[in-house]
């Protein structure tokens, strides 16, 4: 691996450290996270610890950024509340970060150095869930196939599971706030 040692995003580390010092409350909130959005903005969040699998700070910050309209994240760092040291992302978060933002950079502390890794470096030979999902979407858009021939879009032949998946994806991607409110009876 070839992490970057220079040009480390110190402002991002300071943002996460500040939130860890001022906002984390044991035992529910033990880690703070800061992310740099593609437009340069910094968004922060804390984890929501729970024995059932409460989300890590890295996952909360993805949703927090989205709630502010930031969907492209370029860099991320997490800091623990105990000694305010950088915490590397767990395996689940590495997979989610890779699938959401394949080029995102992760700041990690090694000895006395801050190192910046690409998420792909932290998850070599990974399962590319996003790529698999894109492939499925493309195949659906192409329509069902018979043997090696394309039979055209809009045909029949999808399994119930495939149809349901397509429907649920469409609901989330196509429905605007007004439609969602309407569906809730608002
Ligand atoms: Zn995690």
Looking at this protein, list some descriptive labels.
single chain; 186 residues; alpha+beta; Cytidine Deaminase, domain 2; two-stranded antiparallel sheet; 7 helices; 7 strands; globular; disordered C terminus; binds zinc ion
Q: What is the topological layout?
A:
Layout: H1 10-23, E1 31-37, E2 42-46, H2 57-67, E3 73-80, H3 91-100, E4 105-110, E5 113-118, H4 119-122, H5 129-142, E6 145-146, E7 149-150, H6 160-174, H7 177-183
Parallel strand pairs: 3-4
Antiparallel strand pairs: 1-2, 1-3, 4-5, 6-7
Bound molecules: zinc ion.
Describe the protein's architecture and organization:
- With about 190 residues, the protein is α+β, with helices and mostly antiparallel strands.
- The protein folds into two domains: about 110 residues, Cytidine Deaminase, domain 2 (3-Layer(aba) Sandwich), CATH 3.40.140; about 55 residues, no CATH class.
- It is built from seven helices and seven strands; from the N terminus they run H-E-E-H-E-H-E-E-H-H-E-E-H-H.
- It has a five-stranded mixed sheet, with helices on both faces. It has a two-stranded antiparallel ribbon with strand order 6-7.
- Strand 6 and strand 7 form a beta hairpin.
- The longest helix has 15 residues.
- The relative contact order is 0.12.
- The site of zinc ion has 6 residues, from helix 3.
């Amino acid at each position: 691996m070839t992490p970057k040692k220079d040009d480390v995003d110190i402002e991002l580390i300071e943002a996460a450290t500040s939130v860890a010092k001022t906002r984390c409350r044991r035992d529910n909130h033990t880690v703070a996270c800061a992310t740099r959005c593609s437009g340069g903005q910094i968004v922060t969040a804390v984890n929501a610890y729970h024995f059932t699998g409460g989300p890590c700070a890295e996952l909360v910050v993805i949703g927090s950024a989205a709630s502010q309209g930031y969907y492209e994240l370029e860099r991320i760092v997490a800091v623990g509340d105990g000694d305010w040291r950088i915490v590397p992302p767990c395996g689940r978060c590495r997979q989610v970060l890779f699938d959401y933002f394949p080029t995102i950079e992760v700041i990690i502390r090694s000895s006395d150095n801050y190192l910046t890794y690409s998420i792909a470096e932290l998850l070599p030979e990974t399962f590319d869930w996003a790529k698999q999902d894109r492939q499925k979407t493309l195949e659906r858009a192409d329509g069902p196939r018979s043997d090696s021939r394309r039979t055209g879009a809009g045909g029949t032949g999808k399994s119930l599971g495939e149809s349901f998946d397509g429907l649920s994806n469409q609901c989330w991607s196509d429905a605007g706030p007004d439609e969602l409110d309407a569906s809730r009876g608002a």
